[in-house]
Amino acid sequence: MTLRGNKPPVAILCGGYGSRLSEETARIPKPMIEIGELPMVCHIMNIYASYGFTEFYLLLGYKADYIKRYFLHFPILQGDFTVHTGTRETTVTRQTRRSDWIIHLVDTGMDTTTGGRLGRLKDRIDGTFMMTYGDGVSDVSIPELLAAHASAGTVATVTAIRASGRFGMLACEADNRVVSFEEKPQTGDNWINGGFFVFEPSIFDYLEDDFIHLEGEVLGRLSQARELTAYKHEGFWACMDTLRDKQHLERLWQEGRAPWKIWRD
């Protein structure tokens, strides 16, 4: 395992089919859909990197080869380069976007569930780490999230945000301990699962196989055991779940009103 100092690494779920966004995902995996000519997963990585968290595990599945090829050529894609056709030597001559990241690309299989994908990191991570989905952006403060997790002393912390009932709903006590987790309730507005998790390595004890779901099964069991804390975020959060969502994010970006853009180009 490679860690940068004492900075926890970040796992990003990038393996789903993205069926609700089939207009785009028939061609490319959902995390690679571009907002402002930058793949969604890079927006997410930039959020973390803005706070100094620059080691990433991308958990791949559907169209994994597409993501692998992109990051294999990532330094070149960030600027200008020169190719010597005889020696095949490639030299980057100018970078338009600068980054110094460690990116682990982990192929977790086509049909592995969210919990199963996360479980593939069991032998790679042995300390506190973070995780989020490859289709959600926010202006959440990562240092404050980590501090809240450390203070709570639970196995897991989930960023809770307010949105419609199409996401997993959290019921919290006064101390922010989650007492129930209901995946995608049919009605009602409440605190919901916004991703941007922090986990202790003991989370792997809850991930028995490739087919366990993080949301309905694992988070439910953690809440019953009082090992899940909610970090309540009242700021911006958005998920690129549909074409309408994508268009909304693109509009914010083009108008210079993207709240999640906390980094400098």
TrEMBL record:
SUPFAM superfamilies: Nucleotide-diphospho-sugar transferases
Entry keywords, A to Z: Nucleotidyltransferase, Transferase
Pfam families per record: NTP_transferase
InterPro entries linked: G1P_cyt_trans, G1P_cyt_trans-like, NTP_transferase_dom, Nucleotide-diphossugar_trans
Highest taxon above the source species: Bacteria
Nucleotidyl transferase domain boundaries: 12-208
Keyword ATP-binding included in the entry's annotation: no
Assigned EC number: 2.7.7.33
Enzyme class: transferase
Biological processes, Gene Ontology terms: O antigen biosynthetic process
GO molecular function: glucose-1-phosphate cytidylyltransferase activity
Name of the protein in its database record: Glucose-1-phosphate cytidylyltransferase
